[in-house]
Structure formats: C-alpha cells, structure tokens
Amino acid sequence: MLVMKITTCIITVVLLLQVGQLNAADTVAKKPNIVVILADDLGFSDLGCYGGEIRTPNLDALAKQGVRFTQTYNSSRCCPSRASLLTGLYPHQAGIGRFVGNPKAAPPGYQGRLADRCVTLAEVLKPAGYGSYACGKWHVNDPGPIARGFDEFYGFNHGYAVDSWEPAMMIRLPEDRPKRTYAPGEYFATNAITDHALDFLDIARKRKHPYLLYVGYQAAHFPVQAPIKLTKSYVSTYERGWDVLRAERLQRMKQLGLVDEKLSLPGLSPIDRADIAKRIGSMTKDGINPAWESLDKPRRADLARRMAVYAAMVENMDSNIGRLVQSIREHGELENTLLVFTSDNGACAEWDPFGFDMNPKKFVNPKAGHGIDGGTQALPNVLHEGEDLLKMGGPGSMFSYGCAWANLSNTPLSLYKHYASEGGIHSPMIAHWPARIQKPGGVREHLSHLMDICATCVEISGATYPKTFQGHDILPLEGRSLVPAFLNEAPRPRTLIFEHEHNGAIRDGDWKLVGNDGLNRDGIRPGSNWKLFNLRNDPAELDNLAEKEPARVKDLSQRFLQEAKRTLVLPSP
Predict the structure, then answer these.
(1) Helix axes 189-207, 297-330, angle to 10 degrees
(2) Which is the catalytic residue, given 78, 79, 118, 454?
(3) Are residues 488 and 499 in the same domain?
C-alpha cells in the first residue's frame, strides 16, 4: 500500500511538472504583448534605480525584475528620437533629422515628417496579428498615428508640449471615438494619457489579439507641472542645492554599479563649457552654472521649487506606469509582455541656470491636438516669491527648470539635450520580460539605440520587415534586436553616429569622437574642433585625447563623414 501511494505521488509530481513545462513553453510560444513607454527630457540619473533621489518605486521594481541598460543612445531631441524609435532607422533616414515641419526644398533627411521610405512599428506588426495603440505625444507630424498604422490614439499630434492642466489640446482618433471627460480640476495630462492607455488595453483584450501599446508621456518636458501637494514633498530636498545632490547621485551610481568607483567630477559645482552656457543665455558673469551657495536666498527658493515640480512630475509618471503594470498583471499578461521604458533625449538646459517662464495665454494653442510650438528662446525668467512660490507647477503656471538642474539630471554626463555629448544623447532604459530575460536585476552594457526597439519588436513578434510598403521601397533596418542582451549574451562590436543641428559624433566601441556646433554643411570639420574620448575610462567626457591620438581622430572623422552621407545626414540644409 505504501509503495502504491509513493508511486502515485511520483506520477502526480511528474505530470504536474510536465504540465508546468507545457505551460511555460506555451507562454513563450505565444506572441508577446509589447509596451513601449517613452519619457520626455528625462535625465540619465533621475530615476531611483539610476541613482536619483526622485521616488520611482514602480520603475525601480521593473528594473529589479528586469534589466537596466547603461549604454543606450537617443537622437538628441524629441522628434528625431521618436522617428528612430518608431522606424528602427536613424532619424535622417526617417525624414526627421532636425524638427517636424515641411521646409521648402529640404534635403531628404530633413523633410520634417516620417518619410515614405520607412515603416512604423505599427505598420510592421499589423500583418503579424497585432493591434497597435498610441497615447500621448506623437511629434512626428502628419499624416498622424492612424495613417501610420495605429488603431487607436489619444494625445496631441502637433507641437512638442501641452499645458498638463488643459484637456482641450488632446484629441481622440479615429475621430468617431469618444474620449474621456473630466470634472473641473480633475484633469492632468499624465493621468489622462494613462486612463486612455488602460482603455486601449481593454479594447485589445476584447479584440483578442496581441498588442503593441506605445505611451509617449509628456513628463518631464517643460512646462514642468505637477500636483502641488506632491511638489511640496520635494521642496526641502532641493533646497540643499544641485552641488550636494550631484555628488550624492554620483555616489549612489557607484554603489549601484552604474559607473566606475574611480569616476570623479570636476569639483562639486556643475561646470560646463562657458561658450555654450553663454550662448544659451547664462545670467552668470562667467557663463557657467553657478555654485548653489553663491545665489541669494530668494533665487534659491525659486529654483528649489522649480526642481521640486520637475521631481513631482516624474514621480507622478512613475505612479501612472504602476497603474499600467497593475492592469497587465491582473489580467495574467505580465509574464509574456515585453515592457521597455526609456527617454527621448537627455535633460533640457533651456535656457540658462534659472530657467524661463511662459505665458499660458500666449504660448498655448487651444486648437485640439495642438501643443506648444515655437518661441521659447525669447521667453523671460521670472523670480517667484511669496505666495507665488506656492502656486508653482499648478494651473496657470508654466516654466522650465534650467540648465543647472539639468546638469544634475544628467549626472555624471556632460552637456544636455540638443548636443552630441553624452548628456544629450544618453538615455536610461529598462526592459522587463519575465518569460525571456535571463539574470534579472542586472545591468547590461550593450551599446544600444532607441532604433533597436523596433528591431526587437520585429524579432519577437515574428513579423516580417518589408522591403516595399504601399508602393515605396523601404530602407533596411539600422537597429539591432535587444534579445541577445535579454539573454545576457556578450555585447557585439558596433558603431553609431549622431547628428543634430550641426552637432556630430561617432562612437566605435569605447571610443567617441564628438564636435558640438559648427559642423559644416558638407560634414567636414577642422580637426581642432573634434574632441576624442575613451568612454570606458571617461564617461563624463573630461579628458580630451584628440592631440594624443591624431590617427584615431582622422580615422573616426572620415568614417563619420561616410556614415553621414549614407544615413542622409548629408546633404544638410
């Protein structure tokens, strides 16, 4: 009898194990759902899991259960990066090498819209059985998300930002679809984007197809805005100033294994190139970001509040990401859903250490679907004092946080959004996919780019990337699948180039050649304008090795020129 019981137990266990194996295999065999979340103007070290002091528990949890990338690149500004992410190409190949718009007689790389020679993620995945849904910031111009393959859309499809307190600027597409309504004082853009994203997930479930959900949050692009109660919780933190906080971030990054323990910063004060700081309107005498303690008390109070609003905006985004993850988990989809989070560029310096202020009536386009567009260079700085401090970030308040706080956001990297230095083109990236990611919680040093997200989606969906689409020849993918990184395979050699507004760079392995401002229209730059860095030893780009390595400078500059011609950087306007 005992033998029979033991035998029965063994058989039961074996059967259970077999069922488990079948279920696991079935999970992997099913087409995975894909969720791509793109933050706006988020610095490399803002998230808690990247060393920041901002509370981001939901993204931190995804990083702990997934992987963090430390060598992920973007295309230096909002619209070019979105073009790369959506198409798997360099932005110039996709038609948006600079900004959106349709300039007359623009070269092929600068048409200002997604070109006919590319396809979007949604267009590629649709034949593979996917439903595709987009929310938030579009910013790759007409013909818009529905015409480029997405089934549903909520957000703004023109302009680079919106007033987060104003629902009228958001649209729902197709036009016959109802959008949610909000009671007075209830609406906030990040929350509303998530509300509609959750609605789209429900639609996908009813339609019973795997889904691609693309969420382009405006957070934390200017105007920085957030619920005032949440802002208050950060004020005391940022009253300590950017010098102290930058040093603390660097220490946490070392503890997290994100940077080398030997890495140092040029003093505690966030210093950057004087010529650049002066050009963007520095209010300081020497054209560099000032030491915190050199500022008077009213200015420090204003600046602490600006950064507190920014931090609250990021935390609010994190909370909304938590809402998305919870819905996916509750419906049993989390195991086989690839979720990727990243940022479109580095932190935004516009326009000086003290930021700028916007007039909502003057700079907000009330037309549905249109956001803020143009005119920011001429905006004034306002010193907020007294009762006005308490309203910062709330309805009717619109401002940026300035280059000194942006320098903190990018710790330990140099410069900002727009430039080809690491602070402009380096993004955090988190990938979460329990069914496939090996050794979760780790760090991946694979050289990667936002265009790799498209290549990854093509591979894991079983889709076929087309050679032609709607009668047009399609450029081959430039991006590489991230699956080898998910499986913890060794990184492969790779070369990437960058160009935005005549700021150029090429990265080959650990070496990077970079030149900011003055890239000639034919791509030829005097050798003295190039700077050479070994990013393995010097991720902050502090030690220019150009004079010591003239042969390497010559080789990389020639290769940059070749790649610039091939990828439609050249000819430039």
Answers:
(1) 10
(2) 78
(3) no
Which of the pair, 567 or 366, is modelled with greater confidence? 567
Stated as kind and residue range, the H or E segment containing 500 is: strand 495-500
Residues 441 and 504 in one domain: no
Q: Which residue has the higher pLDDT, 145 or 523?
A: 145
With a cut of 80, say whether residue 8 has pLDDT above it: no
Structure tokens that stand for 242 in this block = 């950017």
What's the pLDDT score for residue 119? 98
For residue range 404-413, what is the model confidence (pLDDT) as tens digits?
999 999 999 9
Same domain, 467 and 519: no
Query: What total of structural domains would you count in the chain?
Result: 2
152 CB-contact burial (10 Å; exposed 0-12 / middle 13-18 / buried 19+): buried
Q: Of 470, 492, 514, which residue constitutes the final position of a domain?
A: 492
498, amino acid identity: F
Calculate the alpha carbon distances from 555 to 421, 492, 522, 537, 562 in Å: 19, 21, 17, 20, 11
Is 45 contained in some domain? yes
289 by Cβ neighbours in 10 Å (0-12 / 13-18 / 19+) ranks as buried
Taking phi over 0 as left and psi of -120 to 50 as alpha, with beta for the rest, 77 belongs to beta
Q: Is the pLDDT of residue 526 over 50?
A: no
pLDDT for the residue numbered 542: 87
Residue 13 belongs to a domain? no
pLDDT in tens, 139-157: 999 999 999 999 999 999 9
139 is known as an active-site residue:
yes
Q: What are phi and psi of 525, to 5 degrees?
A: -125, 140
Q: Whole-angstrom Cα distance, residue 404 to residue 416?
A: 10
Residues 6+ apart with CB under 8 A from 543: 533, 534, 537
Q: Is residue 3 part of a domain?
A: no
Which residue among the candidates 49, 79, 92, 139 is catalytic per the annotation? 139
On whether both 466 and 570 belong to a single domain, the answer is no
Last residue of a domain, one of 461, 476, 492: 492
Domain that holds residue 157: 33-492
